[in-house]
Amino acid sequence: MDATTSGTPTIQYHNIPDQPITAIIATQLPTFQRQQRHCFGDSTPGEFPLSANPSIVLHVLTTCNLDPQDLAKLEATCSFFRQPANFAPDLDLSLSELAALDMCQKRAIFKPMTMEQRQDLKLRCGGSWKLVLRYLIAGEACCRREKSQAIAGPGHSIAVTSKGVVYSFGSNSSGQLGHGTTEVEWRPRPIRTLQGIRIIQAAVGAGRTMLVSDSGQVYAFGKDSFGEAEFGVQGSKTITAPQLVESLKNIFVVQAAIGNFFTAVLSREGRVYTFSWGSDGKLGHHTDQSDVEPHPLLGALENIPVVQIAAGYCYLLCLACQPSGMSVYSVGCGLGGKLGHGSRTDEKHPRLIEQLGLLNLQPMVVAAGAWHAAVVGRDGRVCTWGWGRYGCLGHGNEECESVPKVVEALSNVKAVHVATGDYTTFVVSDDGDVYSFGCGESASLGHNAAGNDGQGNRHANLLSPELVTSLKQINERMVQISLTNSIYWNAHTFALTESGKLYAFGAGDKGQLGIELVANQTERGNPERVEIDLG
Fold first, then answer.
1. At what angle do helices 54-63 and 95-104 cross, to 10 degrees?
2. pLDDT bracket for residue 234 (50, 70, 90)
3. Is the backbone peptide bond immediately before 89 cis, with ω within 30 degrees of 0?
């Protein structure tokens, strides 16, 4: 929030963008009367009533888990909250800064940081603990970090419980399930070798799985290559059990993302590293498919912290967190306009998607489908761009869009989550409703209403968003959707409820639904409960 006023001196408090200070201080507080003096003891009338007990105020600010923006507003409107509080560990910090620091220290990825590492992160985020807190919260929100999650991969699936236990099921030709075998699993099975290791995030690709632990270590299994065509040259060997990625041991990783030709990871400090697909400098470096060393993503994001990465077929999106607000950068192949810059040219270095600023949209979550992309704004608006085949952009047609465009059909919906796949898009609203549009192949959109002929239309393509009534009928709030993001595999979809129940539909011929099919079944049109409790 910029501390700007009309006719009032500008105040710099590392405030967080939200609304002008004028909107906060326009209403003057009533002047305290002399007879109220007894409320303050010997203090001057008009002072903050609890100024004699700042420790109580600090306790309230911390335990109430105030939003960083609210802490910034307190600083901007009352001198009591911006003056030094004289509390450890830093006597010069204000109460709002101390509250922000306390809330940062509750975060799992922040706790093990040394004082020097914390100060470096503070400077990288803009010099304020409130901005560090916003950075940490943003990462938790868009990645479900340290929360239960399910990942619908190409032919196989990964589910992570809220306690960090990992289950895998489905195709296993390359050992991508991590059980030490190459046998298909039709039911969710825990990965026993990870016992005692808490996993906070998972990423899947064709024949490959990567898991990130709460200590920042990365485990990989399946194909041993970090980048290749899905049906191209295999790695020199397959790994059938989780193996620590040695080249990442000195980087505290919080997220991994697997594209078709490359792999990317995000560090605790918000730095992006990529593996492979460096031929012709496509990601700003020159490497081959056998490369196992991470390379920092150079260019505009070198000094800007990133909170989320999303990998498409041949491009990468980065959600960045700056003092001025959130923004999205893209890099890679520009075919179809999926980089969002108004052209179809490639970008070798990350480039800011300026259209989101022109739309006055503060991005909170990004999603990179195989050929199209989507973002959810703080105000609940959804923007899509890229290839529009089958209606996956939700604009009522199949046209390509080379810059982000608001999905007008969702104007009455406040979105909080978006997921994209191969020409398919899902949106979750703040009340837990789910909307889908795009390619209906494999019944992965979740629409299974019967027509007059008694035949379901579950394979129909949708050019505009439609409420997924089959999920609505479950009468539980949905919090996450995951769908297959591959052009070579039949798609399936997971829907996760707030209570930790997992529902699956779509293609299940490889066991990827976690549900055994009968007779000649290859898919499930209606959501069916997977017998696993992720809560």
1. 40
2. very low
3. yes
**CA-closest candidate to residue 20, choices 45, 39, 43, 1:** 1
pTM, entire model: 0.87
Q: Are 71 and 18 in contact (CB under 8 A)?
A: no
Structure tokens at 302: 């070198």
pLDDT in tens, 166-211: 999 999 999 999 999 999 999 999 999 999 999 999 999 999 999 9
Q: What is the DSSP letter of 86?
A: -
Tokens, residue 140: 């938790």
> How far lies 208's CA from each of 45, 182, 288, in Å?
67, 12, 18
Question: Rounded to 5 degrees, what angle do the CA atoms 355, 358, 360 make?
Answer: 115
Token pair for 445: 């959109």
Q: How far is CA 255 from the centre of its chain?
A: 9
Report the distance separating Cα 275 and Cα 248, nearest Å. Answer: 11
Exposed, middle or buried: residue 217 (CB in 10 Å: 0-12, 13-18, 19+)?
middle
Spatial distance between the Cα atoms of 378 and 388, rounded to a whole number of angstroms: 24
Please state, as a whole number, how many other Cβ atoms lie within 10 Å of the Cβ of residue 221. 26
Phi/psi for 79 (5° steps) reads -65, -25
The residue among 257, 276, 167 whose CA lies nearest residue 205 is 257
d(CA 230, CA 507): 18
Q: How far apart are CA 529 and CA 279, in angstroms?
A: 44
Phi/psi for 248 (5° steps) reads -110, 10
3-class SS of residue 389: helix
Strands (E), 76-128: none
Q: Which amino acid is at 179?
A: H
